[in-house]
Specification:
Helix content is 39%, strand content 15%.
Length: 366
């Protein structure tokens, strides 16, 4: 399923909506601000000096926090952003003659400007996944080329949890894919930019996280922080530490080594403390359900499916979409069928939803 990734050029003849805009938009959870506890952690980390490049107490404590989170010895590499984290993770797993099996809607395939292919030198094999989820059969179908020198060799399976379509892999589904991948000598990468939302939706506990990662055969996860309430920062967590033996060199070469790493680490430390990351994700998910329930009652709005995490997919007339986007911007998802995506975050309030729904009604009335 294709999605529009550039902002539309609006017609000056689009009728304006004469209503206040929501304080927190529904464009993306990337658009949300920083949670106060995370901001406080940044301020506290700003007192005094600390050694650079991760040789600081915050980074050490955050690594320990991730080990506790997964109940395992892990190798952690803190990075600036999601694309960089995925590149660093995949580069540690691949040789240039190898390939990554992913969905055709995966972030690494659609939204990272070719960075994974450029920096790993490896090919992405995108399989069709209308709901964002690949099947174990689709993985198996790519394995007949193993050992054939004329073909790139599948080396990694990358799954996104939650998916770009707002759907979820259950632990059993991940375990089945991982089993086939491991039997073929491959590794399993999880793009977890919204792993907090997925975990909140699938039980809301650390055990739920472990069940779908270490318990299901995931080898490396790009653990999202920015969408979960941080200012910036992601973590590459090697659940099999030996796979990260060269990550410090890969991260430096990829431009993802922060000199003042304490400020990324301090944010994760705050987010992981007392499982704040799960509490915030639960709020975002609940607000998506609230938004979906409310807009579903409006004639002219059709939901693609009930939200599992913090994304609502809806279809509306094109003229209505244009009017709404000019008033309070959000992204098109599939322009072929006039489907859009509305995202909630930890910061989304009931007032934001009420205001946005009023805007939808006004746009439909013209």
């Amino acid at each position: 399923m294709g999605r529009q990734s550039v902002r539309r050029h609006y017609s000056p003849f689009v009728t304006a909506i004469a209503l206040p805009v929501p304080v927190n938009s529904f464009a993306s959870d990337n658009a949300a601000g920083v949670h106060p506890a995370v901001m406080d952690a940044l301020v506290a980390a700003n007192h005094g000096s600390a050694l650079a490049y991760g040789s600081d107490a915050w980074t050490e404590r955050t690594t320990q926090s991730f080990s506790a989170l997964f109940d395992a010895d892990v190798e952690v590499a803190l990075c600036w952003g999601g694309t960089g984290a995925n590149v660093v993770a995949l580069q540690c797993l691949l040789q240039p003659w190898q390939a990554v099996i992913c969905t055709d809607s995966a972030h690494i395939a659609v939204d990272e400007c070719g960075a994974p292919e450029r920096f790993t030198g490896s090919k992405l094999i995108g399989v069709s996944a209308p709901a964002g989820k690949m099947t174990v059969q689709q993985v198996s179908d790519q394995l007949h080329v193993l050992g054939d020198q004329h073909h790139v060799q599948p080396g990694v399976v990358s799954i996104t949890q939650s998916t770009e379509s707002g759907t979820l892999y259950r632990a059993a589904e991940i375990a089945e894919i991982a089993s086939v991948a491991h039997e073929a000598g491959m590794t399993v990468h999880m793009d977890g930019s919204r792993i907090a939302n997925a975990t909140a939706a699938l039980g809301g506990t650390r055990d739920a996280l472990r069940e779908m990662t270490t318990g299901s055969g995931v080898d490396v996860i790009s653990f999202g922080g920015t969408k979960a309430g941080m200012m910036y920062g992601e973590a590459v967590v090697f659940l099999r530490p030996e796979l990260g033996r060269d990550v410090r060199f890969v991260r430096k070469q990829a431009g993802q080594l922060s000199s003042k790493m304490r400020f990324i680490a301090a944010q994760f430390e705050a987010l992981l403390a007392d499982d704040l990351w799960l509490d915030l994700a639960a709020v975002a998910n609940a607000q998506a359900r609230h938004l979906a329930t409310t807009v579903a009652q409006i004639e002219g709005v059709a939901l693609a499916r009930r939200p599992e995490v913090n994304s609502v997919f809806a279809t509306l007339p094109r003229t209505v979409i244009d009017r709404l986007q000019q008033w309070s911007f959000f992204w098109d998802w599939d322009v072929r069928i006039d489907e859009v995506r509305w995202m909630t975050s930890w910061a989304t309030t009931d007032d934001d939803i009420e205001t946005f729904v009023a805007g939808v009604r006004a746009a439909l009335q013209g």
